[in-house]
């Protein structure tokens, strides 16, 4: 029997809203039977319907952030490579608040777009870190597409991540790069990171994970990121496609023009410390 086309994997801890959204998004692309959810810890039970989804509970993950990232990188890489060897042509791996889409402007469906992976054996999506702006004051309708309600973010190196493999590869901490492989960017796939798209959703997640009772490394990261909400000035936004094109040219190389191991900060004069502020085009509005 031949291999199935593609699987999608994530890991979760104390998640509700984004896990449900992740399942709906990727289930529509690959089918629920090709979803793999790794549950971090046996001290909680997901409230989301996991019927038909492959699940695994890990009981020994460390709670310090860097150690947890390293632990999960090893576990998820091992699972992904096993799936690739035994069952699938492609395996996608992303965090539960990360949603990859095929840019509608390409005119490609998922199967056609995935063919781009075959040359290198992996791809980094162009990453957009969505941040609620100061003029987006109303809470989101959690039953409606987020990108129809939130339009601002940064085209940014940290979330331009290797999201899919077709040959053996291992993710590094946080999934931001692949070990011993250079960046291979694509503009056909866009990764939207939605953790800070809404203040209330972001605060609810932190509290569900333990709030200020978490390990101090987790607490510092989460509350530090929360301070980014409202910082984007829509007047400074670049055209989305222009920012993406600059990212494709500059993220994969270092200052000397050599291939980079992880996406590098852009050198373009329009870049900020976060990347390129953008307004997401209407063509993405109904996708997430």
Shape, principal axes of CA atoms: globular
Q: Return the domain count.
A: 1
Oligomer: single chain
Total count of strands: 10
Q: What is the rounded distance between the termini?
A: 34 Å
- Residues in β-strands, percent: 15-25%
The arrangement of helices and strands along the chain is EHEEHEEHEEEEHHHE
How many helices? The count is 6
Radius of gyration computed on alpha carbons: 18 Å
* Second CATH tier, the architecture: Alpha-Beta Complex
Helix content: 25-40%
Main β-sheet description: 10 strands, mixed
User: CATH topology, anyone?
Assistant: Spore Coat Polysaccharide Biosynthesis Protein SpsA, Chain A
What class, by secondary structure content? Answer: alpha/beta
The overall pLDDT, averaged over residues, is 95
* CATH top level label: Alpha Beta
Low-confidence stretches: none
What does it look like?
This protein is of the alpha/beta class and 288 residues long. It has one domain: Alpha-Beta Complex (Spore Coat Polysaccharide Biosynthesis Protein SpsA, Chain A), CATH 3.90.550. 25% of the residues lie in helices and 23% in strands. The chain is built from six helices and ten strands. Strands 1, 2, 3, 4, 5, 6, 7, 8, 9 and 10 form a ten-stranded mixed β-sheet that branches. Strand 1 (4-12), helix 1 (17-30) and strand 2 (35-40) form a beta-alpha-beta unit. Helix 4 packs antiparallel against helix 5 (216-226).
